[in-house]
Write a structure and sequence with these properties.
The structure holds two protein chains of two kinds. Chain A is α+β, with helices and mostly antiparallel strands. Chain A has 20 helices and 14 strands. Chain A has four domains: about 60 residues; about 120 residues, PTS-regulatory domain, PRD, CATH 1.10.1790; about 90 residues, Gyrase A, domain 2 (2-Layer Sandwich), CATH 3.30.1360; about 70 residues, DNA polymerase, domain 1 (Orthogonal Bundle), CATH 1.10.150. Helix content of chain A is about 50%, strand content about 15%. In chain A, the strands form five sheets. In chain A, strands 10-11-3-12 form a four-stranded antiparallel β-sheet. Chain A has a four-stranded antiparallel β-sheet with strand order 5-6-8-7. In chain A, α14 runs antiparallel to α15 and α15 packs antiparallel against α16. In chain A, about 25% of the residues are buried. Chain B has one domain: Eukaryotic RPB6 RNA polymerase subunit, CATH 3.90.940.20. By secondary structure, chain B is α+β, with helices and mostly antiparallel strands. Helix content of chain B is about 25%, strand content about 30%. Chain B has three helices and four strands, in the order αβαβαββ. Chain B starts with a helix and ends with a strand. Chain B is globular and about 40 Å long. The chains are: A alpha+beta, B alpha+beta.
Chain lengths: ~425, ~80
């Protein structure tokens, strides 16, 4: 009925110049990502169906309005909402899995136990895992990837030894190597010999007839104590041949990328970020570990914050729980607020709640009160729990605001109002 | 010793987990604090011993600007207060 305003514009550049003012306003208000989405959608709609400038303006206004509605109001208890939003799905998590045989042959802790580990800010995860990406040269070739893997895998003499015996007649240790293991770990007999020599236990010799047998000659005075011999045996077996400490196993894994190419990455059991970053053949920019404490130490608190978010999100995703990332980000922000990763436990972030009443409200009530009394603590009744205990107003939402009198302004207003009256009476 | 450590070491600022950090000049820091309506200790902290702080050479008392990549809103600018503990 109403006259259709059919000045549809199909050309984006033209439309943009017509609604430039609105777009500029949107660009200033909206976060870049949302603005980009708005612009690209306007553009595709205009090009496909045509848009009148008036319509486009109304769309922008509507988006701006929605954006402002979705912002958090001052005084909104975001922490409580985050706690509930993570806590409720957490109850479903418990019933599902504890351990999950994830990547081929090793176990990775997932589900609730892992989540607790993250939030508790444990120094070491129960199953440390690293994901090591390789550089251009080693990325696409399994053999080359394996080469780097061998460089990283921590290998001791015991890993390649078949047996070690004490030959009492000739006062020597007989170390027999396992050819299969040597092959697998990429170690030569010569290397093992050098490692054992460096221990300075005695003369080391490879059997001239059997190259897989190494003799370690002992001095006669060594033969007096059995405990001593045991210790020497341990030292030989535990001697490091190569690799990086703490990295127990390395598995080469093929990962198919979006564009169809295959990339080989190394997944390790055990984690040592600092040293892996320096290994040749590794792409240090993309090395990742699930040990958040290590990331904090090597890459800083901001990296730790990102790792926290990623780890928590991964646990929830893996369990099929859809929690908004903003809640997780808030938790990570609180955990990293003091510049180091601190835990969120049952008495607040690392038990640092300032109010003794709030601490006493949850578990170990008497002990908390005794401690607070002994220390002469004062409760300023500013938090939620304390306010509820004493029947006060909680400081959130509408309880955030207070009304107060400004005497100076009153005097001023009275003077302004009274001034004319006075003037009139005199 | 410091030189010895620097030698052929991977620069952590290039790691994908590390967002861009920069020291805010004092005059600007005052302006930002006024805008936000906070005193420096009310900002989130970052330790002087933090590897990134050491890499960019910030001192205790400085304000560091961080350009975070946020999954919800593209790039976000946040500030941290350098503390010396």
């Amino acid at each position: 009925m109403a006259a259709p305003r059919l000045e549809l514009v199909y050309d984006w550049e033209k439309l943009r110049s017509l609604i430039g003012e609105h777009l500029e306003k949107a660009r200033q208000t909206l976060p870049p990502r949302i603005y980009e989405e708005l612009e690209s959608k306007l553009r595709s709609t205009a090009e496909r169906h045509g848009l009148s400038p008036d319509e486009a303006r109304r769309i922008i206004d509507y988006v701006l309005q929605e954006y402002e509605f979705s912002m958090i109001e001052p005084g909104e208890p975001v922490g409580t909402v985050a706690a509930q939003s993570i806590g409720e799905p957490g109850t479903q998590m418990t019933l599902r899995t504890f351990h999950y045989a994830g990547i081929r042959e090793f176990n990775v802790t997932l589900g609730l136990p892992r989540f607790i580990e993250i939030v508790d800010a444990r120094k070491e995860p129960s199953t440390p895992v690293m994901y090591i990406y390789l550089d251009e040269e080693h990325r696409y070739d399994e053999a080359k990837a394996k080469e780097v893997a061998r460089r990283i895998e921590f290998t001791r003499v015991v890993n390649v030894a078949a047996e070690i015996d004490l030959d009492l007649i000739n006062t020597r240790f007989v170390l027999r190597l396992d050819p299969l293991m040597l092959e697998d770990k990429g170690v030569t007999v010569e290397q093992v010999k050098k490692v054992v020599e460096r221990l300075k236990i005695g003369k080391v010799e490879v059997d001239p007839e059997n190259p897989l047998v190494i003799y370690i000659y002992l001095k006669p005075e060594d033969m007096t104590s059995i405990i001593d011999l045991q210790k020497k045996r341990e030292r030989i077996l535990n001697a490091k041949i190569k690799g990086i400490r703490k990295i127990r196993r390395v598995v080469v894994q093929a990962e198919t990328r979006e564009d169809g190419t295959t990339e080989y990455i190394l997944v390790t059991e055990g984690s040592n970020l600092k040293e892996v970053l320096e290994v040749p053949g590794v792409d240090p920019r993309r090395v990742y570990t699930n040990n958040i404490h290590e990331i904090e130490e090597v890459l800083g608190i901001e990296a730790a914050r990102l790792a926290l978010i990623r780890e928590m999100k991964d646990v929830l995703d893996e369990q099929g729980l859809d929690v908004d990332i903003r809640h997780i980000m808030l938790v990570a922000d609180v955990m990293t607020q003091t510049g180091r990763v601190r835990q969120i436990g049952r008495h607040g972030a690392s038990g640092e709640k300032p109010s003794p009443l709030a601490r006493a409200a949850f578990e170990m009530t008497t002990q908390m009160l005794f401690d607070a009394a002994a220390r002469g603590e004062v409760d300023r009744l500013l938090g939620v729990t304390e306010s509820v205990i004493v029947g006060g107003i909680i400081r959130m939402g509408t309880g955030m605001v207070e009304v107060s009198m400004n005497p100076a302004a009153l005097v001023k207003a009275a003077r302004a109002a009274g001034g004319s009256e006075q003037g009139g009476s005199e | 010793m410091a030189r010895k450590q620097k030698k052929q070491k991977f620069n952590i600022l290039e790691h994908e987990l590390v967002p861009k950090h920069e020291v805010v000049p004092p005059e600007e820091a005052v302006r930002i604090l006024r805008e936000l309506g906070v005193s420096p200790p009310q900002l989130p902290w970052i330790r002087v011993t933090d590897p990134v702080v050491q890499a960019i050479g910030a001192k205790p008392g400085d304000i560091v600007r961080i350009y975070r990549k946020s999954p919800t809103s593209g790039e976000v600018v946040v500030y941290r207060y350098v503390v010396g503990y």
